[in-house]
Amino acid sequence: QVQLVESGGGLVETGDSLRLSCAASGRTFSSSFSSYTMGWFRQAPGKVRDFVAAVSRGGGATHYADSVKGRFTISRDNTKNTVFLQMDNLKPEDTAVYYCAADLGSSAQRLDERVGNIDYWGKGVLVTVSS
What we know:
Structural class: mainly beta
């Protein structure tokens, strides 16, 4: 069984910070987590799921949506099968359900093209930013 479990969401005010975590478990990830490009997407109410950030298999390369560049930082710890999203200077427009994604066939730079074909998704965590 494969699981991606997000945590760290919540209600914050404009300008605050949050750190999301995504823990990967199961047979697939126990031995090959570092083979997967990892990323974060988000979906606001009534909108489509959008790419936020991605990190390469070894963690050395990252890719961000323009809307979060300079405010969000993605990272991973392959020893703990976990990926993180540090979100600073949060804005009301960042309000959404945030989903962790794992994809075997994509690079970090192209994960945004794979939204319809991601290998594994988490169930999501809600982030609400009040104005």
